Amino acid sequence: MKLTLTALVLSLSATAAFAEYPEKPVEVVVGYSAGGGTDVMARTVAQFLEQELGDGASVVVKNMPGAGGQIGFTEVAGAKPDGYTLGTFNLPAALALTKDRAADYDVDSFTYLANFVEDPNTITVAASSQFQTLGELIDAAKVDPGAITLGLSSLGGNDHFAANMMQDASGAEFTLVPFKGASNARTAIMGGHVAAGTMTLGQTSNFPDELRVLAVLADERSPFRPDVPTAKELGYDVQMSSLRGIVAPAGMDATTTEQLLSALSAVNENPEFQAMMAEQGNPIAFMVGDDFAATAAKQDRIAAQIWAETPWK
Amino acid sequence: MYSDLLHALPDVFAWTNFAAVVIGVIAGIVVGAMPGLSATMAISVLVPFTFGLEPLVALGLMAGIYNGAMYGGAIPAVLLRIPGTPAAVATTFDGYPMAQKGEGGFALQVAVVSSAFGGIASAFALMLLAPPLSKVTLLFGPSEVFWVAVFGLASIIFLLGGNPVKGLISACFGVFVSVIGSDPIYGNDRFTFGQLEMLDGINIVILLVGLYALPPVIDLLETPLKTDGVSSSKLGTQSLWKALPRMKSFWKTWLRGSFLGIWIGILPGAGGSMAAFMSYNEARRTSKHPEKWGEGEPEGVAAAEVANNADTASALIPALTLGIPGTAVAAVMLGGLLVHGLQPGPMLFRDNPDIVFGFMWQFLFGAILLVLLGGSLATNSFARLLNLPRPLLGSVIIVLMLIGVYSIHGRMFDVYLMLGFGAIGWVMDRLKFPLPPVVLGLILGGFAEENLRLALRIGRGDPMILFQNTTSLILVALTIAVVVGPTLKKRYIDSRKKA
Lengths: 313, 499
Hints:
The structure holds two protein chains of two kinds. By secondary structure, chain A is of the alpha/beta class. Chain A folds into two domains: 24-118 and 241-309, D-Maltodextrin-Binding Protein, domain 2 (3-Layer(aba) Sandwich); 122-216, Periplasmic binding protein-like II (D-Maltodextrin-Binding Protein, domain 2, 3-Layer(aba) Sandwich), CATH 3.40.190. Chain A has helices at residues 2-20, 37-53, 70-78, 93-100, 134-143, 158-170, 182-190, 201-204, 254-269, 271-279, 290-309, and strands spanning 26-30, 59-63, 85-91, 110-120, 122-126, 149-152, 175-178, 196-197, 211-216, 241-249, 284-288. In chain A, the strands form two sheets. Chain A has a six-stranded mixed β-sheet, with helices on both faces. Chain A has a five-stranded mixed β-sheet with strand order 7-6-8-5-9. Chain A starts with a helix and ends with a helix. By secondary structure, chain B is mostly helical. Chain B has one domain. Chain B is built from 23 helices and two strands. Chain B has helices spanning 2-7, 9-12, 15-33, 39-49, 55-72, 74-80, 89-100, 104-139, 142-159, 164-179, 204-222, 240-243, 251-266, 272-285, 298-310, 316-322, 328-339, 346-351, 353-382, 390-409, 412-430, 436-458, 470-498, and strands at residues 181-182, 189-190. In chain B, strands 1-2 form a two-stranded antiparallel ribbon.
C-alpha cells in the first residue's frame, strides 16, 4: 500500500514536473542583431516551437549582438541548463572563434538540440569573368601563385575555411581578401575588384545574371542549382558550409532535452514551417541531437586544424 | 519597370499602409529630436516587432521614421545646438545662431522644407534610377572607397574654416576612436583593455551624445537663473506660407545639396553626416557673402538639411540592389526587409515588385508628409520645451541621453563611455577645438583603414593599387584640391592686395 502510494506520488510529481515545463517564457538568445539570417531563422523556429510546446507556452527571441556572435554564445553556454535559455548556434563560426581568442566556452559547453539550415559554400566568379570552369580558375592560380584574389566574408569563418581547404586540395595559392560581410565580398566580385569568392550558395541565389557559380563545396549537387557541379565531381574533395541550429547549455536533464528534441522535430515536420523557411531562402538540413553534436565536433576539429596550420591572426 | 511602379501604387494607399507612413514620420521626428535616440536605433527596435506585420505596413513605418528622423535631428540642433542625429551636426552651424537671433521658427521652417525637398529628390532617384545607379556603386572597390573617406576627412578639416591645425587634431582624435575594437582584417583587439563590450568599436551615437549633448547641458545648468535667450515667444514663428517666399533663393542650394546627398548615399558607408558637410561647404563656397555663414545664415540650414535627407532613399539603392547599405540606417532597414523574406538583389525587383516599388512610393510620401507634419509638430510642441526652466530642461535632456545610450545595447558600460566623451567634449569646446571633425573622423576613419588594408591585400602589398584607375585618380585630385585650394586662393588674394 505504502509502496503504491509512493509510486503514485512519484508518478504524479513526475507528470507534474513534465507538465510544468515550460512554466515561464523560453528565451532563444541570438548572438546577432535583429533582421539577420540567423535572427530570422530563430524567430521562425520560435513561432512554431510555441505551438509545439503547447499550453500557451511562449518562446521569446533575445538579440545579444556583438563580438561576432561571441557575446550571445557565451550567454547561452553560461546559462542555467533548465530549458529556459536556448540559443542559436552558427557553425563553424561559433567554434572557430574559440580558437583565435580567449573564449569562455568550447565545443562541450552545449547540449546540441537541432540544426535547421545548411548552406554550402561555393566557388563563384562574376558572370563577366574569363573563368568558365573551376579548372580554369585553379590553373590560373597555379601559373602565378597569389595572382587570383578570393573575396571572403571574414577570416575565421566558413568562407575562409572553404578557401583554405580548396588551396590544400588543389595545390593552388590564392590571395585571400576578407571583406566585412558576404554582401561586400559579393559586390567586389561583381565589380571586378576581386577575381572570385567562396560565398555560400544562398548568397548567390538572387544574382543569377551577375554571378557564375563554378562549383558547390558539398557531397551532392544542390537541389536549388542542380546544374552546378560539386567540387568533388571535379576532383577536389572539399566540403564546407554554414550551419545554423538551436542549442542549450550543457548538462540539461534528460526529460527536458527529450521534450525539446521532440518539439523541434515536430517543428521541422510542419509543412507551414518548411514553406516559410523556403520563402526565406533557407535550405533546410535537419539534424537532431547526437547527429548535430557529431557535426559540431567535426567542425571543431577542422577549425582547430586550420588554426594550427595557418593561424589567421 | 515603370509599369511596375504604377502597379504598386494602389497598395500604398490601402489605409493601413498609408497610416503606417504617417505614424512613422511622426515617430521619426520625435525620435530624431531626442538627443541620444537615433533613426538607426528606432528602426532596430522596430524590426523584431514587424515580424508579424504586413510587409508594406512594416516598410512604411521604417520609411516614415527614416525621413522624419533626418529632419527631427534639426530641431534640437537649431534650438539647443545639440544635433539630434549624427547627420544634423552641420545644421547647428547656422541653425543655432539663427535661434539666438530670434529666428528659430524660420530656421525650423527652412529645415523642414529643405528636408522634404531632399527627401523627394532622393525618392525619385530611387524610383527611377536604382538599377543604373547601382552600377556606379560597383565602380567603388576598396581603393576607391579609401579615397572617398580621405576626401571626406580632408574637406572637413580644410574647408570648414577655423584653424586647420585644430581641425586636424580633432579629426585625429576621431580616427583614433575608430581604431578601438577588433581590427577589420584579423580581428585583433585594439585598446579594448579586455572588455568584450569594446570589441565592436565605439558606437557613433555614444560619441555624438557625449561630445555634443553634454557640454550644452552643462552650460544650461551652470547658469540656472539666466532666462533663456531662445524662448518660444522669441521664436519668431510665422505661417509656413509667409515663410516660403523667403526661401525662393535657395533653389540652387537645394538642387546641389540633393545631388550631393544622392551621390554620397549610393556610395558604401559614408552617409548622412558627410553629405550634410559637403553640401554646406559647397553652398558656402559659392555664396556671395560667405563671411555671414556660421552667424545665422538661413541658406546654411537649407544646405545641411536638404543633403541629409537626400541620402535617405538613395542609400537604399545599393542596399536593395546589392545588399550593401549606404548608411547605418539603411543597414538596419535591410534587416527589416530580410525579416519579410525579401532578399536584396536584382531578383527582388522581379519577384516582389509590388512591395519594392510600394516601399519606394512610401519614401516619396514620407518626404511629402514632412512638410505637413514636421512644421507644426516642431514649432507647436518641441519649441515649447524651451519655456521650461533651465535646470528642468537640462535634467530632462540628461535623462534622455542616459536612456538613449543605455538602450543601444542595454548596458551601463556605454553610459560611462558617453560620460567620458562628454568630459572630453566639454574640454574641447572650451579650448575651441572643432567637434565635427571628431564625428566624421570616427565615421570615415574606420572605412579608410578597412578599405586601405583590403586594397593593399588585393594588390599583394603594392601601394600602386591605390592609383590604378580613373575613379581613384579623380578622387586623389579632388583631395589635393581641397587641401591646397584654400591656401592658394588666400595667396592669390594677398598678392592682388599688395599689387
